[in-house]
Specification:
Layout (H helix, E strand, L loop, with lengths): L1 E6 L13 H25 L3 E4 L11 H12 L5 E4 L22 E3 L6 E8 L4 E7 L25 E7 L14 H7 L3 E5 L8 E3 L2 E5 L15 E10 L2 E10 L4 E8 L6 H13 L7 E11 L7 H6 L6 E10 L3 H6 L3 H13 L4 H18 L9
Parallel strand pairs: 1-2, 2-3, 3-4, 6-7, 7-8, 8-10, 13-14, 14-15
Antiparallel strand pairs: 1-11, 5-6, 9-10, 11-12
Helix pairs in contact: 1-2, 7-8
Length: about 375
């Protein structure tokens, strides 16, 4: 029996595209904190291996503090083997970070696009033999499957065979190492630890092979909503029969969330704010959350959304991004029959306002809002 942790897509030193530079810097620090917490949990678990399936780093240029942290964390747990597959963000090349970092003896990095094997003897209390396989992205793209044509890589005895792979199993023509579940099923591996797709946490089975994405260790954007963490596995192989126990462990410092608030009928900015703040307050989000609020609905053309006022009214939430998806509510029936320049202007845009293309409708609505404001001699209101 062996114990191992499956993680991926840590993206250490990610820049975090946020308006608040201080909060972006704080998030980078939290990524490092979560990495440290992962190693602490691996120690408590008694892991024999930690598989990092790509994108440990977010880019090829990494800060010295981050490199020093990685080296010290690996060295702090010499009983564990750290297996690293470079991904599309931290791909291997002769001038990459992988040639500059002085890793301890218990950390292994694959450096070629062809599948390599490392064999470990006498692992765990049962003295298991474990074959670990992997490969590396050697550029930002990897347009073929390294499993294609491979069928005799694994020992068929009670040896445990694990592949650490940064790959895309969902897009057939992916530029990020397209691997199919059929190839996984035919591979002979006992477990395939996948990285690249940030949503995960669940283990599946193809043929006799267990596989899955751990997901990103920490959310990096509003595409990564919900809890994030790593998969802690116990695997036993006797007489060719596998027994796997897996648990997803949440480790993230913060989580991303997206909420949509309909403010239809609001006649001014204050009403928009009240509707948004009222709806979000009921959800009791706190300082752990980075929240995107999509404000939708039909509002008065004079109603101006004030994103800053909304954020200031929700101070307990760590970060709030406001997306304005409202539409101005015009008296279209009146404008259609208006004989003034305003009516003529409306009729010129009428077909676009009814277009099946949402982008064309949005452009027409914005043009109408600006045009009517200008014709009325008023201030042009920008909802963006």
């Amino acid at each position: 029996m062996i114990k191992f942790v499956h993680t991926a897509d840590l993206h250490l030193d990610s820049p975090f595209a946020m308006e608040d530079a201080q909060k972006a810097a704080k998030r980078r620090g939290e990524l490092r904190d979560t990495f440290s917490r992962l190693i602490d949990e691996a120690k408590k678990f008694g892991a024999h291996f930690v598989f990092i399936a790509g994108d440990l780093f977010d880019r090829r240029n990494v800060t010295k503090n981050t490199l020093d942290l990685a080296v010290s964390l690996f060295a702090s747990y010499p009983e564990c083997k750290f297996i690293i597959t470079p991904g599309n963000h931290d791909f291997y090349s002769p001038d990459s970070v992988w040639e500059k970092i002085d890793l301890p003896e218990n950390a292994y990095v694959f450096k070629t696009p062809e599948i390599e094997k490392i064999t470990f003897e006498n692992v765990g209390d049962d003295c298991e033999k474990v074959n670990v396989f992997g490969y590396a992205f050697t550029s930002q793209s990897f347009e073929y499957s390294p499993l294609s044509g491979e069928s005799d890589l694994c020992d068929t005895s009670d040896t445990i065979n694990i592949l650490c792979a940064h790959a895309d199993i969902y897009t057939k023509s992916s530029a990020n190492c397209p691997i199919t579940t059929a190839q996984i099923a035919a591979s002979g591996f006992d477990y395939v630890a996948l990285g690249h797709v940030h949503n995960g946490g669940e283990i599946f089975k193809a043929g006799s092979t267990y596989y899955g994405y751990s997901g990103s260790l920490e959310g990096l954007s509003f595409h990564d909503c919900g809890e994030r963490g790593a998969i802690f596995n116990t695997l036993e192989k006797k007489n060719g029969e596998l027994t796997l126990s897996s648990e997803f462990v949440s480790l993230a410092s913060r989580i991303y969330a997206v909420e949509k608030v309909n403010v239809t009928g609001a006649v001014n900015g204050e009403e928009i704010k009240e509707k948004v703040v009222g709806a979000i307050s009921k959800l009791a989000y706190g300082d752990r959350v980075l929240l995107r609020v999509i404000v939708s609905g039909d509002v008065s053309p004079e109603a101006k959304l004030d994103a800053r006022a909304i954020r200031e009214a929700l101070p307990d939430i760590f970060f709030i991004e406001i997306v304005n998806d409202t539409s101005p509510l015009f008296d279209c029936e009146y404008l259609a029959g208006d004989l003034t320049v305003k009516g003529a202007f409306f009729r010129e845009l009428q077909d676009m306002l009814k277009s099946e293309d949402p982008r064309e409708r949005a452009v027409a609505a914005k043009a109408l809002r600006y045009g009517l404001a200008a014709l009325s001699g008023g201030e042009v209101i920008d909802f963006e």
